[in-house]
Amino acid sequence: MTTLSPQPLSPLDGRYRSQVGELGSHLSEAGLNRARVHVEVEWLIHLTDHELLGARRLSDDEKQALRALVDNFGDDDVAALAAREAVTRHDVKAVEYHVRDHLAAIGLGELAELTHVACTSEDINNLAYAITIRDAVAGEWMPRARSVVEALRERALTWRAVPMLSRTHGQPATPTTMGKELAVFVHRLERLLASVDEVEYLGKFSGATGTFAAHVAADPDHDWPASSKQFVEHLGLTWNPLTTQIESHDWQAQLYQRIAHVGRVLHNLCTDVWTYISMGYFRQIPQEGATGSSTMPHKINPIRFENAEANLELSAALLDSLAATLVTSRLQRDLTDSSAQRNIGVALGHALLALDNIVKGLGEIALDEEALARDLDGNWEVLGEAIQTVIRAEVTAGRSSISDPYALLKELTRGHRVSGDALRAFVDELDVSDDAKARLRALTPANYAGLADQLTGFIER
Predict the structure, then answer these.
(1) In the annotation, is 293 catalytic?
(2) Is 412 exposed, middle or buried (0-12, 13-18, 19+ CB in 10 A)?
């Protein structure tokens, strides 16, 4: 037994509601029902605009009164639909009756039999989902994803010339700059976000099995495919002319795979930033009143990036499952998609939460340039690559007789700490030109970052 009032089961609707709640206006049951009403109303207006199936044209005021059902859709409508569905045991049928009630209330009861005419539930649902998903991605997910990119771009350009020891396989390697490493993520994410923008949101509107059979039976002379195309495109979607009872959901699979890919790149970013924090490259900025550990008061934990990692993993798992499930429907229709699609908001909600934490996390770190400089100065052996490459060029040009310069540097540097003085002394004894020696003597781990600064410029706007 419990004395608690009913509690949200998902943390997205509880603990994290303030961060992801706006998504609910699109991908909740209420958001879906509002979109269903929108489709039903626009279909009625389409039929009357073209005087189909015996309908008369509506006046502008009558159209406005019809569209008010969508514009003013609120909690009372949600409750009314829930009450209807409790009787009908069918969500779209409840929407149809709800629209019919509105027609009677505004003096358009004559149109009652045109409500949902020639439609299967999936005609309404696939368009409603396409509208809500499109608006959620464009209005909620994409702006937050772009805010991450812009936060990274700002830091990449600020730190474009700050040298940093690379760690390939976790081991000291040819230096780079912190800015260039962040710029890599900017470049990756921009390409992927562009691919998300390219996804077409498809819609079908062709009846019970995608054949326009009822339409033709009612009016055999009308060009129903053309009318369907016009209607779907009026809703801002791309018409799918060839389907079963359902729109095949391939665009959804494509979209979810691309969003999941973005999430995996962001997961990579989080693990890298977390590691840089653990190495001391980034200092975490204390937040007023925050506690890092319940027992160790000195700690500032990188919780933003850890939280983002977990939520990106949950989001990817759900998006992958949706992409795999939605592309299969037995014969002309089964209802597996109906249950699956109700979790789209959960998948995107975890993605939004991750994006929010990444932006906040990036705002709570500062680069410790002294730590980067110390690490570079403690790893002079990374210049072994430069020295053996210069020797190879000298040999090729006939200015050196050294054999196997790679082996020579391997013997000197592999598994050893080598000081700057020792490397310069080694260079002084090499059989290479004076110009080559001068270039090599001028090298330090801090200035051996190649074109990293220049390459970062590719992300400048």
Answers:
(1) yes
(2) middle
